[in-house]
Every structure is written in C-alpha cells, then in structure tokens.
C-alpha cells in the first residue's frame, strides 16, 4: 500500500510548522497569530480536508508554499516585513478554516 498523504496530514504539517516558526521569531503579534491559527486549524483537520472535493489539492498547494513562507518569515528584518510575508499566506488558510467551521454536512 502506498504512503500517499491525505489532506489531514498536510493540515497537521502546516500547524506544526506554524508552531515551530513561532518559537523562532521575535515578533509577538505574529507569533500569537501563528499559534492561534494552528490551534484553530488542527482540531478541524478532517473538516478542512473535506471542505471541497479538492481538499487534498488545496492542502498540497498550501504545504508547497509553506517552505517559502517559513524562510521568508524567519528572514524578515522587522515586524512590518514579517507582517507583509504573513498576510497573504495566512489569509488563504484562515479562509479555509472559516469555511470548514461554518460548513454544513449533508448526508445523501
């Protein structure tokens, strides 16, 4: 059996990366936002995966962008630069989290 990752694995990897990078950076607002988003997303990893029929593809895209995000964030020289790095990436994940939290499951 192949060891193919599912969307839930990607969600957990992203959350773990957020916690690790939060430990490395010295910007309290961004650190708090990363940890809060990880704490919010991890418990609903299954719902995030099933948010759309393309749940895995969406999480693969986010995970693919994660390394660049982490590198840019840890290399940010000041809080403003770090905020500019965080805003677009975190906005996509927050949108997915919000959609998953408000999603209604229809059993057919």
Description:
With 108 residues, the protein is mainly alpha-helical. 76% of the residues lie in helices and 0% in strands. Helix 2 packs parallel to helix 5 and helix 4 runs antiparallel to helix 5. The termini are far apart.
List the helices and strands and how they pair.
Elements: H1 7-24, H2 28-41, H3 45-50, H4 55-74, H5 79-102
Helix pairs in contact: 1-2, 1-4, 2-5, 4-5
Number of strands: 0
Query: In terms of per-residue confidence, which ranges show pLDDT below 50 for 5 or more consecutive residues?
Result: none
Write down the overall geometry.
elongated
Round the Cα radius of gyration to an integer and report it.
14 Å
Q: Give the percentage of residues in beta strands.
A: under 5%
Query: Largest beta sheet, briefly?
Result: none
Mean pLDDT, nearest integer?
83
Percent range of helical residues:
over 70%
Treating each run of at least 4 consecutive H or I residues as one helix, how many helices?
5
The SS-based structural class is mainly alpha
- Separation of the first and last Cα atoms: 30 Å
One letter per element, helices H and strands E, the order comes to HHHHH
